[in-house]
Write a structure and sequence with these properties.
By secondary structure, the chain is mostly helical. The chain contains 12 helices and no strands. The protein has a single domain, classed as Up-down Bundle (Growth Hormone, Chain: A), CATH 1.20.1250.
Length: about 325
């Protein structure tokens, strides 16, 4: 599946480089994204297959560091590339990177020994079995909402900083990079806290911090760049801190059909991200205030889920 995904990504990147109009570029980007989704989903499945407990949490935190570092570095590299070449070379460079990843995948040993047979209906049955796991389904969906303010900021930050505060693209890049840095630092701190604090305590602290930062954003009202940047840094730091723990905790709810479960988790996360970016793009009186609302939902719903599940667990004893 990784090989297939990378080949699809290479095809999509090549079509992007050859795109003659915006319609073809958007369609090619969709193909590229579908290929990239293989790595996004299977990275979760592989951590479940290969690691347990605290070790898995640390691996997921390391993945979080990489996922935050790449978006922080990418605009700078893209800007440098555009000084010496056309935009098409951005996608050519992605083809080159994908071939490097393809070589890396060829060196991996397949961890699975049993495979689903029976065609498309059998595969669909695996997803049905996953959705019947109520604890997994509720946790996966509620924690997917935690990403609301993060993706909302990605979609709305140009309008907030450039259109709203009149920032230059260079200064905006610094503010945007600081947000990615917060996510990366949160994931790095998670690797240090593993074994020191319990999973639930890390989640409680992170989710309360997200809610608090959302309240601060609403209180300050986004009247200056710093009144947006400081609460958002706290939010993305907390998301980076809690995401490895929540992913590990959600994966603990399934013992088989790990690939299907990972696919569901990735799908829900990016669907929430897509919805938040679509909502922030609407003509709101204050996009900053909407980010604060996103933070309340993104922190409040998973926190409520944890508390309710804890209450039900105590009652069942």
């Amino acid at each position: 599946m990784l090989v297939f995904g990378l080949l699809l990504f290479i095809l999509g990147s090549g079509l992007c480089a050859l795109a003659a109009n915006i319609t073809m570029l958007v369609l090619a980007r969709a193909i590229q994204g579908a290929g990239a989704a293989a790595a996004a989903a299977l990275s979760l499945a592989l951590t479940k297959d290969l690691y347990d407990g605290l070790e898995r949490q640390k691996i997921l935190a390391s993945i979080g560091v990489i996922m935050a570092f790449c978006p922080m570095l990418a605009p700078t590299l893209g800007g440098l590339l555009l000084k010496f070449a056309s935009w098409q070379w951005i996608f050519v460079s992605q083809v080159v990177v994908a071939f490097v990843a393809l070589y890396g995948v060829s060196q991996l040993k397949e961890p699975l020994t049993e495979f689903t047979s029976g065609g498309v209906l059998s595969v669909a049955g695996r997803y049905i079995a996953v959705f019947k796991n109520r604890q997994f389904t509720v946790m996966a969906l509620s924690f997917a909402l935690m990403i609301l303010p993060h993706f909302g900021f990605i979609g709305g930050s140009p309008a907030i900083y450039i259109s709203g505060f009149g920032m230059s693209e260079q200064v905006f890049g610094l503010y945007f990079g600081a947000n990615a840095l917060g996510f990366m630092l949160g994931s790095m701190v998670c690797t240090r806290l593993g074994g020191v604090l319990s999973q639930l305590r890390i989640l409680y602290i992170s989710l309360i911090a997200i809610i608090g930062a959302g309240g601060l954003m609403l209180l300050l009202g986004g009247t200056s760049p710093l009144t947006v940047a400081i609460p958002m840094f706290c939010i993305t730091f907390s998301v980076g801190l809690s995401r490895p723990v929540s992913n590990s905790l959600i994966l603990d709810q399934v013992d088989k059909d790990i690939g299907a479960a990972s696919g569901v988790m990735t799908f829900e996360m990016f669907m929430v991200g897509a919805v938040s970016m679509e909502l922030i793009a609407l003509d709101w009186p204050s996009k900053t205030m909407l980010l604060g609302v996103f933070a309340f939902f993104g922190g409040g719903i998973p926190l409520t889920t944890l508390l309710v599940m804890r209450l039900l667990k105590n009652k069942s004893r």
